[in-house]
Structure formats: structure tokens, C-alpha cells
Amino acid sequence: MQLRMDGFVPPATRSYLGHTFIIESWPEASIDKSAAFVKVLTFAANLSGSSLNSYINGEDARGERRMNNGVIRTRKALKNALVELLREKELREITISEIVSRAGYSRATFYAHYQYKEDLLDELVEEVIGGFLSAFKEPYENDRKRYDLGQLTPSTVRIFQYIGENESAFALLLKRDNLGFQEKLLEAIRTIFTQEYDLLFPRVPAHIDREIYINQNVYSILGLIAYWVNSGFRYSAKYMTDQMLEIARLSMPRMAKL
């Protein structure tokens, strides 16, 4: 684990109370490393056991995870490096040394954040899917009572905008089946449709099998996304959103008659 204090993270490895502290950079080249580590221990000693553990584990006073800007920048650089390398070779062929070299960091930095390169990939996939789900939920999350598919506009439906903003990641992850991204995205969409079925599909008659209807819509959305990605993002995000909404509205009158 890393213990950050007053803007620096230690460049050597030390242990205290069973935790490993990695000091990666120093405010001044001439600083006495031993003296700096004493400061770390003094800071740690002033915390209670639970507070120390929370601080080391990256939690705030409420026990919630926190992440400073330096950690965010480092992890983003490592993930960008992984994406670049995955365009060139398979994951099994990529080494941690290649990842950190491409990102401009040391191996010690990598191991301060991840244990394996697969952990880095998992976090990348989780972030991409998490952002997609947030974009998907945006039209109804803040005002569920007023949600109406017939009233949605391209400005309120952001899933294609989000994909366009993360074009490189989607293009890579969707085309590489062995990374498990497509199945995880499918499952994430299926989970939303299952949990929000009554809200998202209020006009579907009771005699329509719910599971079949959900899966038909899951694969329909994934098919549109895959088509757009495989076409090299031939159309704009707005055009794709327009088409998706028009297609969805075509089925509304028919559903009302069933």
C-alpha cells in the first residue's frame, strides 16, 4: 500500500505495522530519505489504528474510497499504455515492463496500484462499462416519474456520445473477443433491462415473455453499437441516437395493439 503525505509519495520501499510504503518521488532531490520516512511514521503514529488503516487503504473519514489526482493520472496513463499495446499484440504477449515504459513510469509504480496486468485490464473494462451505464441511465435517473421513451431526444440520450468520446477503448475492446468485454457489456445491459423493466418497457403486454423480450432488446442495442464501431464510426453520435430512437418508436404503436 502507499501512504501519501504532504504532496510526496516515498521512492523506496519501507514497512510499518505490516503495511508497505512506496516513496516514488521527492519534493527535493537533496532530501534525506530516512528523515522523510520518519515523517511518514510520525504522521502514521498520530492516527488511531482504524484511522491509519483507513488512510492507508485510501478511505475518507466515512470509510468511503478516495483517490487523489496523482493516482488518477497514474492509472489513466497505465490504462492508455495498455490500450496502445493491445492494438499491437495480445495481452499474453504484453509485459509489465512494456506497460510502464509506454506510460513513463517505473515497475514500482505499477505494483503500487496493481498486482497483475489483468487487474489493469479489469479496471479499464469496469470503467468503460460503468461510464456507459451512467450515460444509459441519465435520461431517467433524476426524474423517473416523467420518463417517457416517446419524449426522448438526442440531447438527452448520451450512450453514443459516450462511446464516441471513448472511441479507442470501444474499438479495441469490442473487436477483441478474448478480452471478455462484449459479454460483460451484454450482461450489464441485460441487468439494467431486468431491473428497470416496468419503467423502460411499460407498454409490453403481459403475455410477451419478459426474458425473451429483454434479450431481444439487449442484442439489438449491442448490434447497433457493434455496427457503428465496425464501420469505423462512419456516422455521427447524434445520427446514431436519432436512428435508435426512431427504431424504438416504431414498435410503440404495435405494442399498444397487442
UniProtKB/TrEMBL annotation:
Residues 95-114 bind DNA. Keywords: DNA-binding. It comes from the Bacteria. GO terms for molecular function: DNA binding. Residues 72-132 form the HTH tetR-type domain. InterPro entries: Homeodomain-like_sf (IPR009057), HTH-type_Tx_Regulator (IPR050624), HTH_TetR (IPR001647), TetR_C_Firmicutes (IPR039532). PANTHER family: ACREF/ENVCD OPERON REPRESSOR-RELATED, TETR-FAMILY TRANSCRIPTIONAL REGULATOR. This is TetR/AcrR family transcriptional regulator. It comes from Cohnella fermenti.
